[in-house]
Amino acid sequence: MSASIQSREKFRCTDGFEMTAYTFRPNVSNKVPGVLFIYEAFGMNAEMIRVADEIATEGYAVLLPDLFGRGSWFSCVRQALKDLKAASGQGVQDLIDARHWLANRDYVDSGKIAVMGLCMGGGFALLLGKTGLFQGSAPFYGQVPERLEGLCPVVASYGGRDKMPVKDAQRLEQALPALGIPYDVKIYPQAGHSFMNQPANWFVRLLGGAMGAGFEPEAAADAKRRLIEFLRAHL
């Protein structure tokens, strides 16, 4: 693996707002598949950038939009969670706009784009996976929509000690076979919430003991391996 090419960009949303985003791509001359990466509820930080960069070094063009760039963190996260629950709204449209911008880059194979996300972002990854715009969805401990019809292939990773999301994981694993959707769902019994994050965010550090939350290296490494194998198979 070689270092990725990183840049700070802006793309225009449907309503005219110019959203900041970061791109990460391998240093190659040919077009590569794309990945829209949606961060967790704590927003843009060095850890989300690290995760995006790691995926890019595996041969993918990764776009990390700053979904909370429209206002204060509190107002933006509240609106994003509201949009996620409603399965519509500004946050959903912004992410669709981000996908279209990524697809139009001259280094991206526009017919091969996946969406992935952590926590809140994982919920959006599953929601967007039903739009027909993506060839794969990769939620990490994300909320599962009530209806899953029309969902693209899924690779999902959850922590067994993460009490509420693990119920979503179990429902996802039970529902997908009947719908004929290709999937790889894995629950890591030793892991809790935010097991991909190193270091953990302040909330996880505060409540990590009670929640069983925080970085779990074996689960994180295996989840990344499964993600890359999934992307290579479906993109």
Overview of this protein structure:
This protein has 235 residues and is of the alpha/beta class. It has one domain: 3-Layer(aba) Sandwich (Rossmann fold), CATH 3.40.50. Helices cover 40% and strands 24% of the residues. The chain is built from 7 helices and 8 strands, in the order E-E-E-H-E-H-H-E-H-E-E-H-E-H-H. The chain has helices spanning 46-56, 73-86, 90-103, 120-128, 163-179, 202-211, 217-234, and strands at residues 5-12, 18-25, 32-38, 61-65, 108-118, 136-140, 154-159, 183-188. It has an 8-stranded mixed β-sheet with strand order 1-2-4-3-5-6-7-8, with helices on both faces. The longest helix is centred in the C-terminal third of the chain and has 18 residues, at 217-234. The protein is globular and about 40 Å long. It starts with a strand and ends with a helix.
Summarize the structure.
The protein has 235 residues and is α/β, with parallel strands linked by helices. The protein has helices at residues 46-56, 73-86, 90-103, 120-128, 163-179, 202-211, 217-234; strands at residues 5-12, 18-25, 32-38, 61-65, 108-118, 136-140, 154-159, 183-188.
Task: Give structural attributes.
7 helices, Rossmann fold, alpha/beta
